[in-house]
Task: inverse folding
């Protein structure tokens, strides 16, 4: 007799069994006690079952997909290591873009993992809880593969040796760190708006263009591989973020102003963090993909605005900050690189002045601003450097209390005037780079007044090497701060010209192609 | 309490004056001189003479600019929180009424930066 085999489960049935059926209503405890984070933000959800996961991914298929990807990824990373792939990049200057990104990104991914693990537990609906748990696993995988990719470079080049420690302590890394910590310490609905929507959906393309396309353009197969491996998860993450926004808006009209407030806040916070990315695109990639301004035009002004058109039917408006961002797209990459050039004695990567050819490229991409406002500064520093007077700032910059970026941004309508904003809270003054950062502070001053601003912490004496005695007669505060960051002054930083990285790369590359 | 929080949210201002061991923060920016990418933060004892702020600390921060050495400090226009302000060079920063985390901007008419665009 033939075996009687039941029809295979359809995708919908399987998804239901492996997600919705995992949930239940408690009887011994109140559901509000089991899910204590669900109400305090003011978001009202009436029917969790209305949440649809468009991917309908279940854990069993998740493992299968990810295992396949891991196999491919590690095969390439191994091949890269065995074939000295690090010598295949365009120019050793490229490695500094990698150092900057790799000092920040694995920690961001890790914090994203923590955040999604937390809300995966806290989301009362089973569908989103499962989707958040899978995203949490993705994020820790991304952190791990990034660390493995950077370890290939760490064997040969300076500045990548202690990114985890630096991420907690070094001044410029507080910008991206504070972004994720702000999100993680918000409620679950704000977290998913911040990371799932504003970051993953609206801004992630602007990260992947310079980061991954930049790696590909510059011959960095290791970074490119993990980037593509991660990118295939990003589509799912974006969808989760967008579905959540729509779900919140559909559940109750009272959710609209709350969600709008978060979108406004996190669009601005995200764009401020992307300043680092803008600088990387325009100044740090020896072979450029496109200018920051072009990327902003395509991925924000076209793509993201189309998304806002779609959300308009729920009553969502384009954030007011977009107008200022439009004005700043001609400026921020230049302002950031000039800042890092000046602060080149306090970074874990090298800085340099763009060549004449690169300045011509910048002038062509920024015809209204580069030659007028930025070339004169670069040329002034070049004249000094040619005389052996390469300039390094010896003082610390004033920082914005909210985004934690040095106060280097100019007034939206006057590129010759630094923007100053201030407010008072409980008798203390607080300062900001923009109206939008000030507005974010004023909505939650309790939160942002506790910011760990590196310049202030150094001034308070909290950033010296372990066991240091600041009262000793021979105490050198700069040296001690370098030790606290675990940086070797002059080896891990200062100018690219004359650096150990530059010298070694040239020698090794020559040795790999000639007898 | 404007912050949205699951329970009482403690205020922990990390930069209150008492955390600076008797010193105070003072921010100073030089308008129209963007060779310096941001205003500078100084951590100084309140009895620091304002003249020393100018001659020592500002010189250290901004002295590399070719216009710095020729500044006539009697002609400088000062702004505190964006409003006109006049320092007494021989009094301390505390006697000048400067509080913790005050921000000063100085403008040097006739020395408006390089390249005609405030560099």
Result:
């Amino acid at each position: 007799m033939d075996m009687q085999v039941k029809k295979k489960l359809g995708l919908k049935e399987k998804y239901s069994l492996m997600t919705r059926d995992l949930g239940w209503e408690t009887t011994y405890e109140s559901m509000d006690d089991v899910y204590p984070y669900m109400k305090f933000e003011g978001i009202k959800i009436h029917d969790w079952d209305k949440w649809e996961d468009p991917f309908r991914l279940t854990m069993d298929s998740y493992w299968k997909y990810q295992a396949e990807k891991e196999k491919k990824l590690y095969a390439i990373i191994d091949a890269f290591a065995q074939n000295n792939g690090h010598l295949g990049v365009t120019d050793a200057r490229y490695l500094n873009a990698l150092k900057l990104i790799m000092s920040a990104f694995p920690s961001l991914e890790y914090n994203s993992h923590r955040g999604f693990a937390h809300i995966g537990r806290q989301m009362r609906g089973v569908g989103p809880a499962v989707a958040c748990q899978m995203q949490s696993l993705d994020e820790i995988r991304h952190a791990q593969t990034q660390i493995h990719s950077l370890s290939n470079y760490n064997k040969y080049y300076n500045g990548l040796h202690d990114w985890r420690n630096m991420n907690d302590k070094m001044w410029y890394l507080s910008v991206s760190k504070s972004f994720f910590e702000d999100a993680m310490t918000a409620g679950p609905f704000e977290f998913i708006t911040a990371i799932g929507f504003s970051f993953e959906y609206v801004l992630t393309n602007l990260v992947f263009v310079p980061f991954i396309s930049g790696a590909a353009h510059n011959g960095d197969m290791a970074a490119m591989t993990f980037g593509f491996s991660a990118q295939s998860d990003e589509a799912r993450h974006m969808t989760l973020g967008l579905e959540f926004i729509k779900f919140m808006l559909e559940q109750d009209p009272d959710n609209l102003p709350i969600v709008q407030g978060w979108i406004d806040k996190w669009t601005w916070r995200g764009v401020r963090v992307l300043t680092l990315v803008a600088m990387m695109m325009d100044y740090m990639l020896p072979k450029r993909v496109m200018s920051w301004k072009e990327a902003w035009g395509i991925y924000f002004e076209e793509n993201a605005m189309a998304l806002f058109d779609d959300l308009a039917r729920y009553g969502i408006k384009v954030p007011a900050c977009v107008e200022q961002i439009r004005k700043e797209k001609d400026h921020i990459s230049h302002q950031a690189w000039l800042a890092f050039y000046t602060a080149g004695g306090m970074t874990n990567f090298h800085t340099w002045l763009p060549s004449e050819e690169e300045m011509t490229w910048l002038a062509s991409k920024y015809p209204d601003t580069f030659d007028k406002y930025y070339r004169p500064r670069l040329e002034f520093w070049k004249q000094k450097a040619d005389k052996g007077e390469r300039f390094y700032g010896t003082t610390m910059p004033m920082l914005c209390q909210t985004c934690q970026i040095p106060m280097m941004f100019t007034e939206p309508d006057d590129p010759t005037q630094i923007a100053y904003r201030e407010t008072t809270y409980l008798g203390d003054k607080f300062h900001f780079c923009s109206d939008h950062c000030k507005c974010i502070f004023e909505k939650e001053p309790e939160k942002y007044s506790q910011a760990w601003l590196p310049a202030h912490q150094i001034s308070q004496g909290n950033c010296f090497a372990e066991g240091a005695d600041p009262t000793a007669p021979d105490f050198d505060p700069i040296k001690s701060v370098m030790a606290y960051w675990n940086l070797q002054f002059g080896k891990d930083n200062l100018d690219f010209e004359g650096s150990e990285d530059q010298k070694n790369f040239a020698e090794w590359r020559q040795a790999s192609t000639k007898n | 309490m404007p912050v949205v929080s699951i329970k009482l949210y403690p205020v922990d201002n990390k930069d209150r004056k008492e955390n600076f061991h008797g010193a105070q923060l003072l921010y100073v920016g030089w308008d129209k001189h963007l060779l310096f990418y941001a205003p500078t933060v100084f951590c100084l004892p309140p009895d620091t003479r304002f003249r020393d702020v100018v001659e020592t600390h500002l010189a250290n921060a901004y002295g590399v600019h070719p216009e710095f050495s020729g500044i006539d400090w009697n002609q400088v226009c000062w702004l505190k929180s964006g409003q006109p302000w006049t320092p007494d060079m021989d009094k301390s920063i505390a006697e000048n009424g400067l509080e913790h985390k005050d921000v000063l901007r100085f403008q040097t008419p006739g020395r408006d930066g390089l390249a005609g665009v405030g560099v």
Summary: Residues 198 and 267 of chain A are 6 Å apart (CA to CA). The mean pLDDT of chain A is 94. The longest strand of chain A covers residues 414-418.
